[in-house]
Design a protein that fits this description.
Number of helices: 16
Radius of gyration: 23 Å
Structural class: alpha/beta
Distance between the termini: 41 Å
Number of strands: 10
Shape: globular
Strand content: 5-15%
Oligomer: single chain
Helix content: 40-55%
Strand order of the largest sheet: 1-4-5-6-7-8-9-10
Number of domains: 3
Order of helices and strands: HEEEHHHEHEHHEHHEHEHHEEHHHH
């Protein structure tokens, strides 16, 4: 059947506006295939100096009724898509042809439909609760919303959310267990650093001790835990303390996942003003790796999975299960540090430009030559040279 013959929401008389639901701006990379369900709007703290996502945005709680209405909208859209599938001969399945048609017909199938068709095509098994700190809601309200979600979508297997350590440290293990029983599978926490003076500098609004209390409570409740660390956050002044103290806190928590992100400061972030006043000096890529190496060396007595799942990180392959993967991860960093300055420059640009993914790709004559030609052209034509281009590329990843 030709795409022009496929039924539309208009041809059925469906009111598309009745099937819309709210979605927030971000989610972790690991939740790329998740349904985004908004429990709160923006961030209740919103003071972290390295973050720009929710600046100038007012925080608000959503009612359980609002969330349930969104769940109903998702359910109706799901039924609309399955009915469409039957009408066009796809036997109720969410196929590649159906996805392609919905994505290519935005007038009839707006963002809500596009999000759901992609979610269903990926299996429809994962849900991510938005925005920055969903658990600031009363526990029984979250339980109510989760219970309703699972009633509507019994095939959902994993439900995850962002949360602040400060918020979790005020909840009991019993409260967290009730969330787990209701279906909450994993909590993503922005630890950022375990060094108290640095937590104050970046205005994180939490202490290292509260990070430990929160992390342990999540684990005790049986909920999977991802802790995020910002590489380079210590700058020139506190990089060593950042590495060592963060490792100390993580070693006390033993999270299921340690996920690293490399600091990139935009002009819209408050930390940019500290850099302009020379109160904070950024680390180079190489110095960030030295910091990361020191942190990994000090991770002891834990079984976390160390993950480098973001393009901002120079060495994606610094990943592994602790403790057995520690030496391999350190070896990768040492391999990069042993390169000549010319080869480091080649890899840095190639990685940021998407030409390289892993350090081993440096060994490809074709790729290496492609990057070398780009470096030559950049140095001839671009003010600020390679460093300016790398900085611009990194800014585009945020």
């Amino acid at each position: 059947m030709q795409s022009g013959e496929w039924p539309t929401t208009e041809s059925k008389g469906t009111e598309v506006t009745d099937l819309l639901f709210e979605q927030g701006p971000i989610r972790p990379p690991s939740e790329a295939q998740s349904l985004l369900l908004r429990l709160t709007r923006n961030c209740p703290w919103n003071r972290c100096e390295f973050c720009h996502t929710y600046k100038d945005q007012k925080f608000s709680l959503r009612t359980v009724e609002e969330v349930k209405k969104d769940i109903d909208a998702v359910s109706e859209i799901t039924q609309e898509l399955k009915a469409l599938s039957w009408r066009v001969g796809e036997r109720g399945e969410i196929t590649a042809n159906l996805v392609r048609f919905v994505l290519q017909t935005p007038r009839d199938y707006p963002d809500a439909f596009r999000s759901i068709v992609l979610w269903l095509y990926a299996g429809g098994k994962n849900v991510f609760l938005q925005d920055a700190n969903s658990l600031v809601l009363k526990t029984d309200h979250v339980v109510d919303a989760l219970t309703y979600l699972r009633e509507k979508f019994p095939f959902v297997e994993r439900i995850t959310t962002y949360a602040r350590s400060k918020t979790i440290s005020k909840k009991s293990v019993d409260e967290l267990r009730s969330l787990h029983r209701a279906g909450l599978s994993r909590i993503h926490i922005g630890l950022e650093t375990g060094y108290d003076p640095l937590l104050e500098v970046i205005q994180k609004g939490v202490t290292a001790e509260e990070h430990v209390i929160a992390g342990r409570r999540v684990k005790d409740a049986g909920i999977s835990l991802s802790e995020y660390v910002v590489l380079g956050l210590g700058g020139k002044g506190m990089w060593r303390e950042h590495a060592v103290e963060t490792a100390r806190v993580l070693s006390q928590i033993d999270p299921d996942f340690i996920r690293v992100r490399t600091l990139k400061v935009l002009k819209t972030m408050p930390l940019y003003e500290k850099i302009a006043r020379k109160e904070f000096t950024l680390l180079s890529d190489e110095e960030v790796l030295v910091e990361e190496k020191l942190m990994i060396e000090h991770l002891n007595g834990i079984s976390s999975l160390f993950v480098s799942d973001h393009i901002l990180n120079l060495l994606e392959e610094v990943e592994g299960k602790l403790p057995e993967g520690k030496e391999k991860m350190l070896a990768v960093i040492d391999q990069y540090l042993a390169l000549s300055e010319k080869e480091k420059e080649n890899f840095r640009l190639g990685r940021r430009a998407g030409i390289y993914r892993f350090l081993s790709h440096l060994q490809s004559p074709e790729l290496h030559s492609e990057v070398e030609k780009a470096i030559k052209r950049i140095k001839e034509e671009t003010p600020g040279g390679v460093e300016a281009v790398i900085s611009e590329l990194m800014s585009s990843f945020i």
